[in-house]
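1st attempt posting a full record on here, be nice pls
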Amino acid sequence: MLLRGVTTQHLLDPHRYRKLQVSLYHCPDE
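the predicted structure (as C-alpha cells):
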C-alpha cells in the first residue's frame, strides 16, 4: 500500500522521483 502511494506521488512528481533515484544511486558511504 505504501509503495503504491509512493509510486503515485513519484509519477505526479517526476522531479522528486529523479532526486530520490540520485540519492539512492549516490549512497553516502563516506
